[in-house]
Design brief:
The complex is a heterodimer of chains A (437) and B (528). Chain A is α+β, with helices and mostly antiparallel strands and 437 residues long. Chain A has helices at 35-43, 63-69, 88-91, 93-111, 113-117, 132-141, 170-178, 247-250, 254-257, 273-284, 286-307, 349-366, 418-434; strands at 27-31, 47-49, 58-60, 80-81, 125-128, 147-151, 161-163, 191-195, 202-203, 206-218, 223-238, 270-272, 319-327, 333-339, 378-379, 382-387. In chain A, the strands form three sheets. In chain A, strands 9, 10, 11, 12, 13, 14, 15 and 16 form an eight-stranded antiparallel sheet that branches. Chain A has a four-stranded parallel sheet with strand order 2-1-3-4, with helices on one face. In chain A, strands 5-8-6-7 form a four-stranded antiparallel sheet, sandwiched between helices. In chain A, α2 links the parallel β3 (58-60) and β4. Chain B is mainly α and 528 residues long. The chains are: A alpha+beta (437), B mainly alpha (528). The interface between A and B is medium-sized, with 28 and 25 residues.
């Protein structure tokens, strides 16, 4: 899309200008989730929990509550809630695919094939059962490849299977005929059939995927932050295409791995992204790694742009997404899916620290305490990735990939000295308050 | 003057002798013959022309690297009349202690063998061989044939520490009266160790005025100040293929992208077809014969590396390296300059008869608890099994063997322990005294770090920066200095503890430490 260079220095990231924002004595929060989120909320100074029907200023809700209540809940201007009303446009696999396809077509019309090709980061996907015939056409064009069938709405690896023969999914064809005359209220479960990436990048002979966190503060205009930390989740068994029935080999969700007979809880099967980035750098050199990470930035931004016009951008809403990315042997990243409710349960001490830091910094960015000026490009471990346009790094460092003289403000897998940065940030904010300009 | 000349002549003769048997010699010969075809080689000036050709084609560099490698590994020859034991270890009491330690280990191994009625070695049946060959790349998933819980590791570092604590020099008597000069630590042998002024000189490139990777490549420092130039020099060193230059260069740390090649250059490892063939041969040995030590290796990997948050991924590589390592008889060569000797075993029924003696395991090295951690960090750099194997083997015969054998060598574990304790007592006397009073002798905590060269205790990137310096200075002394630096860093907390367990807790987690700043502060920024 537009690659106009904007001087980002004078543009805030969405905080209301003019009238000084109210500093609240205490912030009433509500949440149904336990684990790390509860710890973080309870430890935040000035935040108190409200139970049951009490009025709240901040609600970290789950998506089912949202579906049932959002439309008839009045929220004051300052109130914040942790999901967008129709987030499923991005997070349900069939909708995401539809939106991405439409966005790609639009891009091709407006900016040409080259620009549209930047959206080719999701494997060919077909919604089932309605796109069954299109799927069969593609299937026949590529005999012998493996496909993966994923339920649209389930998570944690449930209901997923691999197949190579049409025979394996003949049941779907039966369902397409009967979908018109549904007698029951039970909806037919939607699946997507996706081309399985047969050449994943392996480390130690094992397949892995990456979990990356993206915080979206608004869609219109689009403002998104990228968290520096994340992790690579390894499959417990060695990768081979011989046994497509062995879901332990192919699925890297920790939830599935936990049930594998090889699973040892102490292991955790995760690498922090910093470790992953260093491993790649020592194997492929820094330039290749820069290219890979900048391709991932492209995925985050384009996927958000594709749903930008569709998602209801309510100013009360923000959302923390968990992106699942798979790298193939050519160091090309693929988008597997986007999670609106990434798991916040900690599987180890290290994981606990990552998630609590992530949540603390999310709350800093949401800024219920009205401390930020709105011009920050970095808050703790979050870097401002998109602010109605690309965001540049302050110092204008050299652009390694040679694609123009512009370096993005993302630092995925880089050093996260968030405590230090937060100290400096809040100290300078204090200072600014005392000396009015 | 004459003495020096004759020493030099002796060294040259020894190195030539050694290299004549090597593959490099054959290659040079072949190259020399082939060069006769070239137009610039003239009969009148044959010798000079061939030398010139070697220089231009890079073969001289290769020879230079090989010579440098020999100089680094082999100790300089001493008195011509000195017996070979002196090359291994000049001090008699040390040799004796090592000998009795070895007998203990072998006894333990043999008794485990008898208890479990498992042979030390057996030939695998054909079916089992086929199965192992199929599973070669994923041995980690295999359930071992024998129940691993029956096996005990032959020894753990703390057993070894007890032996070292009891080392005494029978010729040394320091009088009964205790004074402030009395060594407070556990090691009670009089070996010469460096003090801080000497260490400052030895590690001069780590000083505050020189740039370092691990310090000057942090996010706050603009890369133009040091990092960019350092990377550029590193690339130049690699293109020149000069071992000695690489070793000097790496004292300031290696850039991540260049590290694998730099280490290979310093260790003089190049993957020739013969090396790959040799590795394949070892693999065949593994397939055909099963050794008792294999179970020890399995157990060690499962207990240590597989449980590590970062190294679990490389489990399979560890088996592929360590199982082959046990069968590699070329490792026996290092016993010429190690105080240790390979354990001998006898063919069944022929106990005591030398003709029926074999070294067991074939490489003479019995693995102990934590041994696999020497290999794990290398998996981060090398992905090709035969290259990974060569690098590990070279690292072992140059450095790691000194960490579990009793000797007076300055890089030997005894000297490292003494260096650690002396540094602590001299520069942090209050801390040392306090810890001793509460029954928490510092060496009891730091010993395991040094024996493993900090593998598994530091974050991987920090560990690799540390091992850069081990290669750069061709010495393990930095391990003792780092151990002391860690204690210095956590001194405030340690002064408040009142038990060994509490002291262990303060020092339990080293994964957040940055080694280079710690070393710099301890060596160069502390008032001595």
């Amino acid at each position: 899309m537009m690659s106009r260079q904007k001087n980002q220095n004078y543009k805030g990231h969405g905080l209301p200008k003019g009238k000084e924002r109210e500093q609240r004595a205490s912030i009433r929060f509500k949440t149904t989730l336990m684990n790390t989120l509860m710890d973080v909320l309870h430890h935040r100074p000035g935040w108190v929990e409200v139970k049951d029907e009490g009025e709240w200023d901040f609600y970290w809700c789950d998506v089912s509550w949202l579906r049932e209540n959002f439309d008839h809940t009045y929220m004051d201007e300052h109130v914040r809630i942790s999901h967008f009303r129709n987030h499923y446009e991005l997070t349900r696999k069939n909708y995401m695919v539809k939106n991405l396809k439409r966005f790609r077509k639009q891009l091709e019309r407006e900016a040409g094939k080259l620009e549209a090709a930047k959206c080719d980061f999701f494997p060919k996907t077909f919604e089932m059962p309605c796109e069954y015939h299109l799927f069969v056409e593609e299937f026949r064009k590529n005999p012998g490849i493996t496909w993966i069938m994923k339920p649209v709405a389930r998570s944690q690896g449930k209901g997923i299977f691999l197949f190579r023969r049409l025979k394996d999914i003949m049941d779907w064809k039966k369902d397409t005929r009967s979908s018109d005359d549904q007698k029951d209220d039970i909806p037919v479960e939607s699946y997507v059939a996706q081309r399985y990436i047969e050449n994943p990048y392996l480390i130690g002979g094992r397949k892995f995927d990456l979990r990356v966190y993206v915080l979206v503060m608004s869609y219109m205009p689009l403002r998104a932050w990228l968290y520096r930390d994340g992790f690579a989740r390894f499959s417990n068994t060695r990768f081979t295409l011989n046994s497509i029935d062995d879901q332990y080999v192919h699925l890297t969700n920790v939830a599935v791995q936990k049930t594998s007979p090889d699973y040892h809880p102490k292991k955790g099967c995760k690498w922090m992204l910093q470790r992953f980035r260093q491993y790649l750098a020592s194997k492929h050199g820094p330039e290749a790694v820069e290219t890979l990470f900048s391709d991932m930035d492209n995925i985050f931004i384009r996927s958000l742009q594709s749903v930008q016009k569709v998602i209801i951008s309510d100013k009360h809403c923000f959302e923390l997404y968990g992106y699942d990315i798979l790298i193939d042997q050519d160091l090309k990243p693929w988008l597997l899916e986007v999670n609106a409710s990434p798991s916040l349960t900690a599987s180890s001490q290290e994981d606990y620290e990552l998630k609590t830091s992530l949540l603390e910094d999310t709350l800093h960015v949401v800024d219920m305490e009205a401390r930020l000026t709105g011009r920050e490009k970095r808050v703790g471990g979050f870097d401002l990735m998109w602010n109605d346009g690309p965001v540049s790094r302050e110092d204008g460092a050299h652009d390694l990939s040679g694609m123009g003289n512009f370096v993005t403000n993302t630092h995925l897998g880089c050093v996260n000295d968030r405590k230090k940065q937060l100290r400096q940030l809040f100290r300078s904010l204090q200072g600014q308050k005392k000396t009015p300009n | 003057m004459l003495q020096e000349e004759s020493d030099l002549a002796l060294i040259i003769a020894q190195i030539v002798q050694k290299l004549k048997g090597s593959n490099l010699y054959t290659q040079l010969e072949r190259q020399a013959w082939a060069s006769l075809q070239r137009p610039e080689i003239k009969l009148e000036s044959l010798k000079e022309d061939i030398k010139e050709f070697f220089k231009i084609s890079g073969w001289e560099k290769k020879l230079q690297n090989a010579v440098y490698s020999e100089l680094s590994v082999f100790p300089l020859p001493s008195h011509p009349a000195a017996p070979p034991e002196h090359l291994k270890e000049p001090l008699v009491y040390m040799r004796k202690a090592q000998g009795s330690w070895e007998r203990r280990i072998l006894k333990s191994l043999n008794s485990m063998c008898t208890e479990l009625s498992i042979p030390l070695a057996r030939k695998r049946p054909v079916g089992e061989q086929k199965e192992l060959l199929n599973k070669w790349n994923e041995m980690g998933t295999d359930e071992p044939v024998l129940d691993l819980s029956l096996f005990r590791p032959v020894y753990a570092p703390k057993d070894f520490l007890e032996v070292l604590i009891n080392l005494r020099n029978p010729n040394y008597e320091n009088g009964d009266s205790h004074s402030f000069r009395t060594h407070l630590g556990l090691i009670q042998v009089p070996l010469k160790v460096k003090d801080i002024p000497e260490l400052k000189e030895f590690f001069v490139e780590l000083g505050l005025t020189a740039g370092q990777l691990g310090v000057d490549d942090s996010t706050q420092v603009p890369p133009e100040l040091f990092e960019n130039e350092h990377v550029r020099i590193g690339q130049k060193v690699l293109s020149e293929q000069d071992s000695a230059a690489a070793q000097q260069y790496i004292r300031q740390g290696s850039p991540t992208a260049l590290r694998a090649e730099l280490w290979a250059l310093i260790l003089n490892i190049s993957s020739q077809p013969e090396d790959i063939l040799y590795y394949e041969q070892l693999k065949t040995n593994v397939i055909q014969h099963d050794l008792l030590v294999d179970s020890l290796i399995y157990k060690d990997v499962k207990l240590t590396a597989s449980n590590d948050d970062y190294y679990f991924v490389f489990e399979d590589y560890l088996y592929q390296v360590l199982l082959c390592f046990s069968r590699d008889t070329s490792v026996l060569g290092h016993f010429a300059y190690s105080s240790a000797s390979p354990p001998k075993s006898y063919i069944r029924g022929k106990l005591g008869l030398e003709e029926y003696a074999v070294f067991y395991p074939p490489n003479g090295v019995i693995p102990f608890h934590g041994f696999s951690m020497y290999v794990a960090p290398l998996c981060f750099l090398y992905h090709e099994p035969s290259k990974l194997y060569q690098i590990f083997r070279e690292m072992y015969v140059r450095f790691f063997f000194r960490l579990h054998s009793i000797s007076s060598h300055p890089s030997g574990i005894v000297s490292l322990c003494l260096l650690f304790e002396t540094l602590l007592q001299t520069y942090l006397p209050q801390l040392f005294y306090h810890l001793r009073e509460i029954g928490a002798q510092p060496l009891r905590i730091s010993f395991k770090w040094m024996v493993r060269a900090f593998s598994g205790y530091l974050a991987t990137d920090q560990l690799l920066l540390l091992w850069d310096r081990i290669l750069g200075y061709n010495s393990l002394e930095i391990l003792a200095v780092l151990a002391a630096a860690v204690f210095a860093f956590r001194a405030v907390n340690l002064m408040e503890v009142t038990s060994l367990a509490a002291a262990e807790a303060v020092l339990a987690d080293l994964s957040t430490l940055k080694v280079m700043p710690l070393l710099q502060i301890f060596l160069f920024a502390t008032v001595t």
